[in-house]
Amino acid sequence: MSFVSDKRENAFVVGVLLPGITPRQLDDQILELSALIDTAGGKVLSQTTQSRKTPDPATYIGKGKLTTIIGQADELQCSLLVFNDDISPTQINNIQKKAGEKIKVLDRTGLILDIFTKHARTKEAKTQVELAQLEYLLPRLTRQWTHLERQMGGIGTRAGAGETQIEVDRRLIRTQISRLKKQLKGIEKQREVQSHNREKAYRIALVGYTNAGKSTLMKRLTGADVLIQDQLFATLDTTTRKLELNVGGSVLLSDTVGFIRKLPHNLVASFRSTLGEIKNVDILLKVFDASSENVQEHIDTVNQVLSEMEMEEKTELLLFNKIDAIKNEDIIKGLQSRFNEAVFISAAENNGIDTLKERISETITSKFQKDAFHINFNQTKYLDTIYALTKVLKKKSDFEGILLEVEGTAESLDKIRQMLKQ
Fold it and tell me: Any residues with CB less than 8 A from the CB of 396 and at least 6 apart, and which?
């Protein structure tokens, strides 16, 4: 059940320039926040920024500034007041009291949670989002919030956690959080079983900043019928498909949720099992939008999230997508100079895809070892498994059986040796 209005909700955006952030960086964050609001179903009518040495403990932006902003938002008939930063429960409750019943107050985390609620499809994603929602809302449970949830609806108040759980007491919500965590542990165990079943395959994951074109690339590489939308967080659930490469054995490619700057920590935590799908992969394909002016910041953000997941040591390929959107060749040459090992592609225009496949194949086979196996006629039942696990370089028959020269991973070759000993 959704509580989003049929018409787009008018939003007023608030940004604060704090020490350590440049005006340019703040402008970029505001642009991204506006894109998030658009994805959630809102429309930014106006915005304001304020320079402060430290946030105001009570209202984040100060009592006088808050009064001015609320007056402007009310005059523009805005029903949303969205802050670029995360705001403490005390601050958001104080701001909400000042704003009254006609204007909902959201911070960046609350907005992202709303989008995740909107886009969650599978049971796992819905469970993870509900858990993150409840952990976010628990310290913000007040009479004011409950009243807003019941009366206002719209962005920030979607789905079960927003409507059904806010009206119960904290003890019941804590019980629900505990139950959801147990459910996610069960889902994680199912993933481990699925991962074990896929252990014979070489596994690759697409990771990157949100809206970098990962889903378009997934479809281009595998032909998979995946959702492609020009929206932030269009994909929440991990999609895995077979990638056809001449490397011997199966190759599986997984598309994952996009990362974003200032991704709420409780979302990183609650989505750990979804992202955990990529913890056992052999290669990370890091995908970035080459046409973005913030590409280095996007790279830093993705690396930070992967570091939190202890995945820095994975073999990786760096991809710069959307080169078709760059009209100035000097920009591409500059990126190629800085990232000389990267692959430059346009998934939408099918440009550079063959080169990418070659690089993936080279990366896979670079760690392959060669060996030879003599299979007697009583062991021919193992031929299909050998072909599935390795790349057969040469096959020769004699009176005693078949001689195969193969190359594959050390693990695959060891499995074959153990199998033939039986």
Answer: 402, 403
